[in-house]
Specification:
It is a single chain. Strand 3 and strand 4 form a beta hairpin. The chain has a nine-stranded antiparallel sheet with strand order 5-2-4-3-11-8-10-9-6. A two-stranded antiparallel ribbon has the order 1-7. Helix 2 packs across helix 3, helix 6 packs across helix 7 and helix 7 crosses helix 8. The protein is 33% helix and 23% strand. By secondary structure, the chain is an alpha+beta fold. It has a domain of 170 residues: Alpha-Beta Plaits (2-Layer Sandwich), CATH 3.30.70.
Amino acid sequence: MSDLQLSLLNDFQRGFPLTSAPFDVISRRLGLGVEDVLETLRRLTREGVISRVGAVFCPNRIGVSTLAAMAVPKERLAEVAQRVNAYPEINHNYEREHRFNLWFVAIAANPAHLERVLHDIEQQTGLAVMRLPMVQDYHIDLGFDLRPTVGMTGRHRQKTAPPRALELDTLDYALVEAIQEGLPLVVRPYAQVGALIGASEADVLSRLTRLLDHGIIKRLGIIVRHHELGFRANAMVVLNIPDEQVDEVGRCIGASGLVNLCYQRPRRLPDWPYNLFCMVHGKDRDAVLEHLEHLRDQCGLTDFQCEILFSKQRFKQTAARYVEATQPRVEAVA
């Protein structure tokens, strides 16, 4: 990958320009022609290096979601993974090193729809689905710094204000539906989105700004696919933290610069005693384990029950769909 391509992917994963011609802004910063930037992004999307250029939405601010896990007999893993993948509500599905070996994320418009999907998976497979919805997020940012050896984004860490309530209207939902799989890779993407939903370019820009200001959009930029860029090791680290300490520990891990994700989820006793989850991605297994050792020292994790679930294979990774064209529009608040 050339230095210019690296700069494009590394420097525009967040803070994507909210102007009429955002790719013009990017091209000037890189010293390239705008068509060169657009064609590079199109090609890297076709090659699977980029998932999309667009928004990462905050979990449960639009629709509802849950992390889910299944203990699947080894000889049935491929079959069950294929059944799970068939649901459009599933956007990530991984095998991990554990008795609970299949982990996926399910997103739906409302709790009833989400539960129907999970129940149907149980009926189709004859296996239980462990539901682990997010209770509290301490750090969520799957941006990757492509220059260091481990894909952390510590230099972008920010302390953000608690999200403010925002009531979404029909046009907001139409906007989310239009961009959830990415912005069009054209010179004036916001104008094209506006034409699709019956809004002006200025209205699209102002609504995106509002969604960012209220934390409904976590970041706007280039969404890279970490595995294709060399971050081939990732571990989900789960800890059993006393309830009275979970916020303190979660905030420490989230602010460490050593993890991509950190969040609290419910225990599911007796099978699952863990209530704090974090994710680390790295070039290789040793790099991830090295960062986890630093994390243990930095946040005093040595005495807590802990397991490390390395990813073994990726069955599905797509953009999350928060809004379906056929679903009724509903009001949502933070």
